[in-house]
């Protein structure tokens, strides 16, 4: 009986030595005679966090001045704590900076602004993005891009073999791990596919008039109804071009959008999941200086990396719609000014998003900057969703109940997905 009791007492001490290897911890255990625990000490070693005390509320009574111990220069029980004016150093010390209140900031405004950033996860997905950008959805890619994809003259020599080699390079040959990280193979695959597309520069010299930009900062502000919205922040890779992307929808199709009604999701507010702030700047900036030789946004590439993605496919497509809209709107306001109008020459921006296997394609055509009301001409969005480039890429075979379910290597390659990827890249070179 005594041995069992001693064993139970020694167990917490063993846990303490496993968690704490410092000399102070060891000395405390030596001071405990016969294995008895000092509860006041061992609880501190376990790192118990005491609850934070609530600050005392001091009530001010009009006409009564509290008696403080300021004159005595030390604490006196029963007397109130004195309040001294804030000491001014006379110079700005960055280590003791105190930000002003929101109401005192120079950019503070009474009217709030709802911001869409790269981490925004909107509840309604594409439907909410369509309402915010005053757009009409069209399933699939435009006919002009599909015709480029089906034309054999636009294909690379040994295209399927070289694309499969690019997939194997990123998924199988670039790692010694049984399951490579998505943060590694997703950008590697995208850059290899872009390198394959760039090989057509010999037959299409227009591809040399483009450049990839990374970590550029976008800002586009507009009014929708009675609220103000803004797309802001860094996002993905942007392929810029010297020449604008050709217009996809004709004048007749653009005018027909005036008769189409925008889909609503009442009773859910369209501002749900957007960041609401009163400190903002009404800014419209493409992210590049004036006179930049590649001023036209061509294709925006987004990557959703990580085994636990931050955005679901529906929310990822909404992000693609919003940032293509933001790039087009910032360019339109730089060309035509901030006055709302129907554009004489619409602006087209494309987007491609991938997680290393599935690809999402979006094409946005900005027809108008008059976004405040639901009536009139609307913008157009083409969406082609969930296009797999391949089914499996296994370093080791997947075996279940002694049966090979998925063999090692690449399987389930889909050539049509890369054809669409290549067609979007070649759009505007003919």
From TrEMBL:
Pfam families: PDCD9. Its main location: mitochondrion. This is Large ribosomal subunit protein mL37. It is found in: Mitochondrion. One of its GO terms (biological process) is translation. One of its GO terms (cellular component) is ribosome. One of its GO terms (molecular function) is structural constituent of ribosome. InterPro entries: mtLSU_mL37, Ribosomal_mL37/mL65. It comes from Culter alburnus (Topmouth culter). Keywords: Mitochondrion, Ribonucleoprotein, Ribosomal protein, Transit peptide. Belongs to the mitochondrion-specific ribosomal protein mL37 family.
């Amino acid at each position: 009986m005594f041995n069992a009791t001693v064993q139970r007492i020694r167990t917490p001490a063993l846990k303490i030595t496993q968690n704490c290897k410092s000399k102070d911890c060891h000395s405390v255990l030596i001071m405990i005679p016969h294995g008895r625990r000092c509860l006041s000490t061992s609880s501190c070693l376990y790192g118990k966090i005491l609850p934070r005390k609530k600050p005392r509320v001091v009530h001010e009574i009009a006409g009564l001045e509290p008696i403080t111990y300021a004159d005595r220069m030390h604490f006196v029980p029963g007397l109130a704590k004195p309040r001294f004016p804030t000491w001014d150093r006379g110079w700005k010390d960055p280590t003791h900076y105190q930000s002003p209140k929101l109401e005192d900031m120079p950019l503070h405004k009474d009217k709030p602004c709802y911001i869409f950033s790269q981490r925004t996860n909107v509840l309604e997905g594409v439907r909410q993005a369509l309402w915010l950008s005053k757009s009409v959805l069209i399933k699939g890619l435009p006919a002009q891009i599909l015709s480029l994809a089906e034309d054999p003259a636009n294909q690379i020599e040994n295209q399927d073999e070289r694309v499969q080699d690019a997939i194997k390079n990123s998924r199988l040959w670039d790692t010694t791990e049984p399951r490579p990280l998505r943060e590694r193979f997703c950008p590697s695959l995208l850059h290899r596919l872009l390198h394959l597309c760039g090989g057509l520069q010999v037959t299409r010299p227009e591809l040399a008039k483009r450049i990839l930009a990374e970590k550029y900062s976008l800002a586009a502000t507009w009014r929708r109804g009675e609220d103000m919205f803004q797309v802001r922040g860094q996002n993905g890779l942007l392929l810029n071009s010297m020449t604008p992307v050709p217009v996809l929808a004709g004048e007749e199709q653009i005018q027909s959008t005036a008769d189409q009604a925008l889909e609503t999701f009442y009773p859910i507010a369209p501002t749900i999941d957007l960041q609401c702030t009163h400190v903002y700047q009404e800014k419209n900036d493409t992210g590049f200086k004036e006179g930049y030789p590649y001023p036209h946004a061509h294709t925006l590439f987004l990557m959703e990396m990580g085994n636990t993605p931050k955005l679901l496919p529906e929310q990822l497509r909404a992000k693609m719609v919003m940032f293509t809209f933001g790039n087009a709107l910032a360019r339109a306001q730089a060309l035509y000014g901030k006055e709302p109008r129907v554009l004489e020459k619409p602006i087209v921006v494309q987007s491609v998003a991938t997680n290393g296997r599935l690809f999402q394609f979006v094409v946005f055509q900005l027809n108008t900057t008059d976004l405040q009301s639901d009536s009139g001409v609307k913008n157009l969005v083409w969406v082609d969703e969930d296009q797999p480039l391949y089914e499996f890429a296994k370093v080791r075979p997947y075996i279940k109940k002694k049966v090979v379910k998925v063999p090692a290597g690449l399987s389930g390659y889909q050539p049509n997905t890369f054809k669409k990827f290549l067609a979007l890249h070649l759009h505007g070179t003919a």
